[in-house]
Amino acid sequence: MSSSRSDEATPNICSDALAEPAVDVRDLVKEFSTATGILVAVNGVSMRVYPGEVYGLLGANGAGKTTTLRMMLGLQRPTSGTVQIAGFDVATQPIEVKRRVSLVSSSSGLYQWLTPREIMLYLADLYGVPDDEAAARAEMLADLFDLRGFMDRRCAGMSTGQQQRVNLARSLMHDPPVVLMDEPTRGLDIVGSRRIFEYTAHLRQQGKAVIFCTHRLDEAQRLCCRFGLMFRGQLKLEGTLADLQQRTGREHLTDMFLDLMPAESSMAARLTSLQGSGEP
Amino acid sequence: MSNSGGHTSDAAALTFRRLVRLARKECRESLRDRRTLATLLLMPLIVYPLLGMVVQRFAFSSVSPEAPEANVVIDDRLSPDDARVMLAELDDAEKTTEPSATEPSAGAGENTPKTSAVTAVVPGLELPLLNPGTGQVRPQLRIDLGSTYPVELIERGLREGIVDVAVVLRARAADAPRDGTNTIEVLYRSGDPVSELAAEEVAFRLRENRDTAIRGLLNRVQIGGDALVMVRQKGLQTARRSESPLAAFVPLMLVLMTMTGAVYPAIDLTAGERERGTLELLMAAPVSRRQLLTGKFCAVFLVAVLTAVINLTAMMVTLAATGFDRVLLPQGIGVQMLLQVLLLLVVFASFFSSVLLSITSFARSFREAQAWLIPLMLVSLAPGILSLMPGIRLTVALSLVPLVNIVLLGRELFQGIAPPGLFLLTLVATAGYSAAALRLAAGIFGSDAVLFAADRREQQRSATQRLDFVPRRILLGTLLALLPLFAVLAGLRGRLVAPENTSGQLLLSAGVLVGVFVLLPLLAMRLGRVRLTAGFQLTGFHPVAIPAALLLGCSAWAAVYELLLLAGSSGALQKIMDNPALRQMVDRLTSNTSLPLQLLCLAMAPAICEELFFRGFLWKGLENLLPGKLRPLLISTAVFAAAHVVTDASLTVERLPGTFLLGLLLGLMRMQTGSVIPGMLLHFCNNGVLLSLERLVPAMRIVGIELDVTHQQHLPGRLLVLAGVLAGVGVLLAVISAGRGRGRDS
């Protein structure tokens, strides 16, 4: 991004807690039928995210973060529970919800035969942005994400960094109040990761509600206002860093998370049990 | 109110504009892709000329074509001796190539050297159909010199194909001026290449022999030696057309090329979205899947149509350049035919685009999509090969069979014999299938099953665990194998047991049912590690389902019969009675066989096998594939009814309404009870009663019921009341049985 780099420390207060939540999740449950029985991927998750807040939804792989995000987007139907985005219920008003949410994901790709401008205008059209407004936003975002040099060049052959910037730009074409970010730094180098951090800070400054999903607890600690730690489908801990530090007696999120894991699941514990059983 | 009306039209306009933009983006993406362009442009520009050159230079020049034979007869005003002289074959040295100035142009044009004599003999037909030895292609004329015939008989013989060419004298009347013109007409059949070629040869010989022989003839019939004589060729219009297998090749080529053009964009715009990582973005956008898919359909359809048009143009240009157009299309290509062919291709492109999209929407990757499409391409070849067989014509029934209808119609359009009614029927049917396929695709594209690889249930099981559902690959693979297996087994049945061995035929028919509807899905489920009781839905049920099935099975036939009568389908019933294929099958299988054997093979075997398949395996697979409870019911019923239309080697479409209703009843029973077992009983009772009806007539007479179903009379009132009561109680019991049964559906 061409805006100045932000070196802010993790803010303690990111949002106006008196405002209505932009995201309101209540008792969300998702079950899958398997050959062995029912798999509960998300088990009674509740959380609220306010405008101007970056909420870190954290957890290891398989904790249920991505499933939670998908239910918020309306891509998967919850088994039970409700999700409201900007006052609209995902189950009953999915189109209205989708208009107000944007997804930034590490697995998102681009249309190789289209130019960034064409992609951005296409997505603007999908989200119902009027033509003149879409054109103006495309120009603004091109400046913001430094896309001028290749705005009208087909995406095939672009570098990873360029593709990432196009992805970030297109996510803001419809100016959504809520942005969901699913492992956005996966596979990125330090430059790319920094770009994500700056982008997130920009979103917060714009007053958007951001849910930042990652298993990189260290980077989340830098970036987010509040945290929700998930483990095996449940939200085990939630609060600001200070709240969590006070509650758990730990300073870092990594340690707090490790404390959540059952003792017998750690490798050290398993090795110890083997030693104790006399196995060679 | 006016506000809401304006609102609705604004919304519709918005939706349409959005659809146009969605389509524009998909088209832009497809047409920029180099692989699409290669298929669209390069292949027709290379393939057709290359093919034309190969055929022209190697295929025909290496073959010594046998000269076609033509039957020639003469008018009864001519004598055989005269005919022998007039039609004598000339030595090459005696040939002249100067046409007469007074004659209509049909004669040789220029004075060409002997090596190019073919162009002189058959002017205008400048085909290098050369025999390297003779350098000529001339038909063998079988001239009937033993008899002469009146003109009316000759013309009739020409129209019916008995005669290929006739020589008729149209002498001027005796009292007409002496300087009038006498004409010897050479009659031939328009549009028949052999007849036309033979007429050319006959006319040529007549002209060459005219001065000597024909003048002598005219003197003998007292017309006068100085009377003008013209030799004129006249073509008779006839419904007969020679069936050129090559003409059938043209629509097949066009169909294949259209398919080839549409395949890549279809895969790229569906499975390709997932591979690119753009599918999730699309699904997260506030646009319905139907709209998204409509945009994709427009792109695939556009590429398919462009491919068809470019291929058609390339083909026509190549045919004209090589001269094959006169062989393949002797009647020429009119604007009307061209427009009809284009319309046909557009409708076919629409159909194939939607079918492709519905298949590729299943796929999670490019490779998987290609794997799914290979069988489709192979299956699509079959109708094309069928169309190459002479004697197979487009009929009403075949007009409803997808792909076959297109190819046969294309062939008949090129031959100029396509009936307008069947043309329209084919277009409408194909458009209908296209819409249905598109709807299916919209339901599948981007659904959970594709988006999140949610046969995840299959992926999460361990190697030893069995599934309680039928994965889609198992279902689709079984369905693909089913028809060929049925065809093979049914064919073998006829070879293994003599037709007069009706008991053996019955047992083998039952064996075919077991093989196709039980063993095949069983094998598939074993391979897919599906629990057999779950896959066949052999689950427990409420005991009251048994009497429900018994009662409904004994009364259903009456309800179906009356419904068909009341719906005015008496014609259909009569057709069932009079259908020779059906009667033959019924007579063959039920005469000289005992009732127990009939019940075993025609009631029990179908009941068990068909219920296991249609309401068990197929239903279970559809549940996994499509959302909702009704779709498995309706689709399995439709497939069940369609399967019963095939009777031995013919189609008995008349059975469709009755079997559909029965299938619906069986499906509802399965839905209510959660098991296929009550349905088996119902099916058995239904078939058993129908087989036993004739034997039941005396018993019914005892209780005062006179039964006569062969003359489409309504059933006796008492019987209707009895059937109604039985059915009513059966329905009630079925509803009661639902409480326990439904919970077992996964």
Mean pLDDT of chain A: 84
Low-confidence stretches of chain B: 61-65, 92-136, 453-461, 741-746
Q: How is the main sheet of chain A built?
A: 6 strands, mixed
**Cα radius of gyration of chain B in angstroms:** 34 Å
* SS field, number of helical segments of chain A: 10
What is the H/E order of chain A? EEEHEEHEHHHEHEHEEHHH
Summed up, the helix count of chain B is 29
- Structural class designation of chain A: alpha/beta
Kindly name the structural category of chain B: mainly alpha
How much β-strand is present in the residues of chain B? 5-15%
How would you describe what is shown here?
The complex is a heterodimer of chains A (280) and B (746). With 280 residues, chain A is an alpha/beta fold. Chain A has helices at residues 65-73, 94-99, 116-126, 131-144, 160-170, 190-205, 217-223, 241-248, 253-260, 267-277; strands at 23-34, 37-49, 54-59, 80-85, 88-89, 101-105, 178-182, 209-214, 226-231, 234-240. In chain A, the strands form 2 sheets. Chain A has a 6-stranded mixed sheet with strand order 6-7-8-3-9-10, sandwiched between helices. Chain A has a 4-stranded antiparallel sheet with strand order 2-1-4-5. In chain A, a hairpin with a 2-residue loop joins strand 1 and strand 2 (37-49). In chain A, helix 3 crosses helix 4 (131-144). Chain B has 746 residues and is mainly alpha-helical. Chain B is 66% helix and 5% strand. Chain B is built from 29 helices and 7 strands. In chain B, the strands form 2 sheets. Chain B has a 5-stranded mixed sheet, sandwiched between helices. The longest helix of chain B is centred in the middle third of the chain and has 34 residues, at 289-322. Classes of the chains: A alpha/beta (280), B mainly alpha (746). At the A-B interface, strand 1, helix 2, strand 6 and helix 3 of A face helix 1, helix 9 and helix 18 of B.
